[in-house]
Design goal:
Blueprint (H helix, E strand, L loop, with lengths): L5 E5 L17 H7 L3 H4 L18 E5 L1 H4 L9 E4 L6 E4 L7 H15 L6 E4 L11 E4 L6 E5 L2 H9 L5 E3 L8 H21 L1 H5 L1 H4 L1 H8 L2 H8 L5 H12 L6
Parallel strand pairs: 1-2, 1-5, 3-6, 5-8
Antiparallel strand pairs: 3-4, 6-7
The protein binds iron/sulfur cluster (SF4).
């Protein structure tokens, strides 16, 4: 599995002026850290750069802005999520135009194109009706009532299409050591996909080959995974690894 990790990044986080108001949300510290090889960044986890060759290099970033790629100009009318949090609509705030279908169609095309060379992870903008991974407000209708927190349409589609690609919002990565843990999880998830595709001995020994990395990346939650792994059936393995990937980054 040669080559650097491939990470999707919301374009506004890298400083591109693609937001509805014509601005950006440059996450300067995060972008600097992502340009740094893991061996320099990861004080706590540096021993794992020998285990995962992809960590020898800074990740390759793929910048994505679902809204401008959908043909919406910059600046544009702000949008928000409304309705059912499991399948929300995207509605323009002032004109009340329903933008759900055009946005979903664009996202489907993007996901299809990504499927030829899937991303290893994604770092997306918090709170966006397109990019927000979790906690994006979902309104009941045109008023101010929030029914629940939800996910943006792009984040939802990514999670369904690439369930073993870790997703984070920029705010998840602010805590000390969170980014290096996220990158270690990403390397593990890539190794996991490789093991599942290879099957046989590679998969049977996954828990053994990567036991120390699993514990470093997931804390105590990985103890039981490593212990139970040899006795799990294939479906349990998938669902238990998927549950590990959903664990908070700070533990
Ligand atoms: S759609 Fe995503 S990338 Fe584009 S401006 Fe909104 S949050 Fe940023």
């Amino acid at each position: 599995m040669p080559g650097s990790l491939r990470i999707l990044v919301s374009a506004c986080l890298s400083g591109q002026r693609v937001r509805y108001n014509g601005g950006h949300k440059l996450a300067a510290g995060l972008m600097r850290a992502l340009a740094t090889p893991f061996s320099l960044l990861a004080v706590r986890h540096s021993r794992f750069s020998a285990e995962f060759s992809c960590l020898d290099f800074a990740p390759k970033l793929i910048h994505v802005c679902p809204e401008t790629e959908c043909g919406l100009g910059t600046p544009r009318e702000p949008m928000r999520l409304e309705g059912d949090a499991a399948c929300p609509k995207v509605v323009a705030v002032n004109s009340r135009r329903d933008m759900t279908e055009p946005l979903r169609a664009q996202v489907r095309g993007r996901i299809l194109a990504l499927g030829r060379n899937p991303p290893d992870a994604a770092i997306l903008k918090k709170g966006s009706p397109s990019c927000g991974v979790q906690g994006t407000p979902v309104f009941s209708g045109p008023g101010d009532e929030i029914v629940s927190p939800g996910s943006g349409v792009f984040a939802l589609a990514l999670r369904r299409a690439f369930p073993f690609a870790p997703l984070a919002q920029e705010s998840d990565l602010e805590a000390f050591g969170a980014l290096e843990t996220f990158l270690l999880r990403t390397a593990l998830a890539r190794a996991w996909r490789h093991a599942v595709n290879s099957g046989g001995e590679t998969l049977a020994r996954f828990h053994f080959t990567h036991a120390r990395a699993l514990l470093a990346a997931f804390g105590a939650g990985a103890d039981e995974f490593v212990r139970d792994f040899p006795h799990m059936n294939p479906m349990e393995r998938l669902s238990r690894f998927s549950a590990l990937l959903a664990c908070p980054l700070s533990f």
